[in-house]
Specification:
Shape: globular
Strand content: under 5%
Oligomer: single chain
Structural class: mainly alpha
Radius of gyration: 40 Å
Distance between the termini: 94 Å
Length: 1033
């Protein structure tokens, strides 16, 4: 607060003058309320000083407006006190205030222009990262609380900090909080080996919170430790579960790092149990909920015991069970040292009198001395659920006569025999009940009540608001139990349908498809009589009966493909229901038909019955929910594995193309999405083009909505997968709107447009029809600023174009080579593969080779040759082979140590890059110094192996390399000792003309040695050599 000292000094002087005047006048003239107001103003000034004094420059910049506003309010308060208490008008303070503000601004301006001042308090990388994120927080989330001047200051400071960071901090995490956003009590209420806990207030909302400050040694926090700390914070701040304390945010780079939790209503378990008798009666229900929260934490990789293991948390949960039963901590009488000895010796607290044998057995299994022998948490959860269910079924009350404990199910007291009041009837089951209430209602002896509860529960699955309660109330285990033990077939399939609803729009279940199928197999297949009854209910039942029958059909289809339903006429009945005016049955009819589409025979039946027609009609006239599930059913039809029926597909595609052409906005959106799903099949692509879908998709690219343009581009990306489709897209005018989308679309649109260009540039004909026009500059732009996918696609487009000499020149002139090399170094695996392919094609041109080398391409290619995939290695070897044709590049390749890498690749057994690698070594072998390096790297044994067992191409390039190696006298003996003479003789006898020429050249050089001449004659070289004298070239 250095720059505000003159203003604060003047304010202090005004307050002193006010106090002196108040002392001078009679105190009786001053009311108590006025004195209280005076005290409030002074307190506000002191609080302002405490909050802002001694702060570093970054804080003073981001909080400058808040501090200045606070000082101005105190000044105005002092002015009001002079007027009220002393009846005096204070003049000229505002003029001086303006001057003070200008002075403060000037001092801050000077400070932020001096880099040494800005970085003075930011010596460590953590301090700089904390400052960076703090500034981003203010700029991105608090800009409305700043003014133009402070925003400019913060931008300037960020630029200074950025220059000193190795890498920018990246995107601001959603959970990041600067320390000044929380008012924290200095004194902690608890300390531990990892940090301290403080109470506080979240200033933005006034919510009471608990702040955990971590004990971190700044000198020990290197980059690796900080990354680990960042990851832990990402995990902690991402926690979201009804039985886990809410996390408001924090900062892993703060000094110290801190995290902000909601403040629990009760400070400890004992206080919580003592809040009411009702809580004590729900002990196991609450312990079960706590265990569910603990299980969630474990799945997120969080252990409550800190550096201990997950089994330590199981032990701690057992101690909580004992504390809940006894209402006191299990080892409260022991000091910390004694507790450690107690645990070290494997001792266990005494069994509480109120704990049953079954419960105590669970506690014992959770506290085994050997952690590996402790029961797992999933088993504990199941057991606690059992206790909780029993607890909810038998809630104890007291007899009003003798006060003995009684069950709500008893009619007479077992102690005194008094008649007990009749329990009230169970609440009526309606759709207004919450999911937890409906789940509780399924635990009943009445099959009819269970059916009704599940009927309402399965409908809640498709309600956006109710759907969230499924996760919150943790009903998965209950539903699994109901699938296996439900009191009726309807109850069991309803429970299964609830679990399987991740297949419907935007609902993600924690249960896998494989487990759903396994559970479904436990449900019996409907009998013929049951199928007939269901179809009758669908056709002639009341609205409620139709709804229940449609849900029953959907569940039965999920369980076992609805065996028997199709032959009983269920498809026709469900399609008829689609055309009715009743919303709930119509929705469930669409869901049932969508599930049917997963199976071949059912799919063909659906297409023959023209199910697509009524589903499409709903897209035009239905409610939002009806449209959503009808679109889902159509999508199931479009992507079914059974789509080899061309007649059925043609009808569906005709309908979709018709909707694309003249449907409503929403219908066009859905039709475009479904066409894209269908277009993955070659037959479907042909039908879409023949029926006119291509022209309509191109038109939607020009004038459609954002969704339509994205989906139309997706359709064109599929249609251009083969050469005929690419030519059709080009000739129908698809290229200009695709280019428009690539330049100005949003990310998803650009990705689809780039995929189209990848396909179009793959074929020479479509390239000639305009796919290359104006493509290179936007692709280079995407290499610089695009997202991961766009960079990959841009590199692929350039790789395709680089097959042409003209385009290779244009790509090089655009500056793309440097960005492609950058992708080689730091891109994703897919980006690296695309980039190396492009560079391999570009390196065909002599001019481009020096550009690749100048951009650092040789080192990057060497790294990829060592660690890339087989495909990447093949393209990398091709690129390096082309580079070895240039003398300057050869020298750099040798300096970068590529020759041993080449030889290692020959030795590794990877077949794809071998031929290119041999070609590269052959090119390198024109220089004696490089030949020496090749011999030192052990190339001879590899070459002899390829001469003997390689492919024709490998042998051709290898014999050329060996011929070059034999130029040097010192290499000849090593070739002979490695067994190189026999395969050379074989090539002289049976090779092609070039192989014969090169092998005889090598043999001629080798024969300079008497010993080698003897070997050459001994292995039978005379006959082929004599033959070459007469028939050779």
């Amino acid at each position: 607060m250095e720059e505000a000292q003159p203003a604060c000094g003047r304010l202090h002087s005004r307050l002193s003058n006010l106090l002196a005047e108040l002392k001078r006048v009679e105190t009786t003239q001053t009311s108590a309320s006025s004195l209280n107001e005076c005290t409030s103003v002074v307190a506000a000034f002191l609080k302002l000083l405490q909050r802002h004094s001694g702060k570093p420059l970054i804080y003073r910049v981001v909080r400058h407006k808040s501090m200045v506003d606070g000082l101005q309010q105190v000044n105005e308060g002092v002015e009001e006190l002079f007027r009220e208490l002393l009846d005096v008008d204070v003049v000229n303070w505002s003029d001086q205030w303006e001057a003070d503000c200008q002075l403060q601004d000037a001092e801050i301006e000077a400070a932020i222009k001096d880099k040494s001042v800005v970085l003075r308090d930011l010596q460590s990388s953590r301090a700089r990262a904390d400052a960076w994120f703090t500034l981003k927080f203010e700029v991105e989330r608090r800009s409305e609380l700043q003014n133009e001047k402070t925003m400019r200051w913060m931008t300037s400071v960020m630029q200074t900090i950025a220059a000193g960071l190795k890498t920018l901090g990246g995107a601001l995490p959603e959970w990041f909080l600067p320390e000044y956003e929380v008012q924290v009590e200095r004194k902690p209420f608890r300390r531990g080996c990892f940090g301290s806990l403080h109470r506080g207030v979240l200033l933005s909302s006034g919510v009471n919170v608990v702040v955990k400050r971590f004990s971190v040694d700044e000198m020990m926090v290197d980059e690796h430790v900080q990354l680990k700390l960042d990851k832990e914070f990402e995990t902690l701040c991402g926690l979201e579960h009804p039985n886990v304390m809410k996390v408001f945010g924090g900062s892993p780079v703060g000094s110290p790092p801190f995290i902000v939790y909601e403040d629990a209503m009760d400070r400890d378990l004992r206080s919580f149990w003592n809040r009411s008798d009702e809580i004590k009666e729900r002990m196991y229900t609450l312990l079960h909920q706590a265990a569910m929260g603990l299980n969630y934490l474990h799945k997120q990789g969080v252990c409550l015991a800190g550096r201990a293991t997950f089994t330590s948390d199981v032990y701690s949960l057992a101690m909580c069970m004992i504390e809940a039963a006894t209402n006191q901590p299990p080892v409260a009488w022991l000091d910390a040292k004694s507790v450690r000895e107690y645990l070290k010796n494997g001792l266990l607290p005494s069994r509480p009198d109120s704990m049953t044998d079954e419960t105590w057995a669970l506690v014992v299994s959770m506290t085994k001395f050997d952690p590996e022998k402790r029961v797992d948490l999933e088993s504990v959860i199941n057991k606690l659920k059992h206790f909780a269910d029993r607890e909810s079924a038998v809630t104890l009350n007291c007899c009003c006569v003798c006060a003995a404990s009684i069950s709500v199910e008893w009619k007479f007291c077992a102690q005194c025999g008094s008649q007990l009041p009749v329990s009230p009837p169970s609440p009526e089951l309606t759709g207004n009940l919450s999911v937890p209430q409906l789940v509780a209602a399924t635990r009943t002896e009445s099959a009819a009540r269970q059916d009704q509860a599940l009927l309402l529960l399965v409908q809640a699955c498709i309600d956006d608001d109710k759907r969230r309660e499924f996760y919150a109330s943790d009903v998965i285990s209950t539903l699994v139990d109901l699938v296996e033990t439900g009191r009726s077939h309807f109850a069991r399939v309803c429970a299964l349908q609830c679990l399987s609803m991740e297949k419907t729009p935007e609902l993600i279940s924690s249960y896998s498809d494989g487990k759903i199928i396994e559970l479904g197999q436990s449900i019996p297949v409907l009998t013929p009589q049951e199928c007939t009854w269901l179809v009758g209910a669908l056709m002639t039942g009341s609205c409620q009966n139709k709804l229940k029958a449609a849900i029953h059909c959907a569940g039965a289809i999920t369980a076992n493909r609805g065996k028997g339903l199709r032959s009983a006429g269920a498809v026709e009945a469900l399609i008829t229901l689609l055309k009715s005016d009743d919303e709930p049955p119509k929705i469930w009819s669409a869901i049932a038909l969508g599930h049917l589409a997963d199976h071949d025979v059912n799919w063909r039946t659906l297409m023959k019955k023209n199910v697509a027609g009524p589903l499409a009609s709903i897209l035009q006239t239905g409610s939002d929910m009806q449209k959503s599930y009808s679109a889902w059913a159509l999508c199931r039809l479009a992507i079914s594995d059974a789509t080899d029926d061309l007649e059925g597909k043609e009808g569906l595609i005709s309908l979709l193309v018709s909707l694309l052409n003249c449907g409503t906005r929403e219908q066009k959106n859905i039709a475009a999405r479904l066409c894209a799903a269908l277009a993955v099949s070659a037959d479907s692509r042909r039908l879409i083009v023949e029926i006119g879908g291509l022209q309509i998709a191109v038109e939607l690219l020009r004038v459609g909505s954002d969704v339509q343009r994205e989906q139309s581009a997706r359709v064109l990306a599929c249609l251009s997968l083969d050469e005929g489709g690419s030519i059709a897209v080009a000739t129908e005018g698809g290229i200009p709107p695709i280019m428009e989308l690539l330049r100005f679309g949003i990310s998803e649109q650009k990705e689809q447009a780039a995929k189209v260009l990848v396909n179009l540039t793959l074929y020479e004909r479509s390239r000639d029809l305009g796919a290359r026009e104006g493509v290179i500059p936007p692709c280079v732009e995407l290499l610089r600023y695009g997202n991961e996918k766009l960079k990959e696609y841009a590199a692929l487009v350039l790789a395709n174009l680089a097959h042409s000499a003209k385009d290779r020149c244009a790509i090089a002139e655009s500056g793309a080579i440097a960005f492609l090399v950058s992708l080689l170094r730091g891109g994703t695996p897919s980006q690296r593969e695309s980039a190396v392919w492009a560079l391999a094609n570009l390196s065909v041109d002599k001019k481009n080779r020096s550009l690749i080398a100048a951009a650092g391409g040789i080192a990057a290619l060497k790294a990829l040759l060592q660690s890339g995939t087989d495909n990447q290695k093949g393209q990398t070897a091709r690129a390096l082979t082309n580079l070895t044709l240039d003398q300057g590049c050869r020298e750099e390749i040798a300096r970068e140590g590529c020759i041993p890498v080449f030889v290692g690749l020959l030795r590794s057994g990877d077949e794809k890059p071998k031929e290119q690698t041999v070609r590269a070594l052959t090119n390198m072998a024109v220089s004696q110094s490089h030949r020496r390096r090749m011999i030192q790297a052990g190339c001879v044994a590899c070459f002899v192996g390829l001469l003997r067992d390689g492919t024709a191409g490998q042998k051709l390039h290898t014999v050329r390399a060996v011929a070059l190696l034999t130029i040097d006298v010192e290499n000849r003996d090593s070739i002979a000792r490695a067994g190189g003479i026999p395969p050379l003789v074989t090539l002289a006898w049976v090779g092609n003309d070039v192989q014969k020429e090169l092998s005889t050249c090598a043999l001629a050089n080798l024969s300079a040695s008497v010993e080698n001449r003897i070997t050459i004659v001994r292995v039978g070289a005379c006959l082929p050599l004599v033959a070459l004298l007469s028939v050779g070239t």
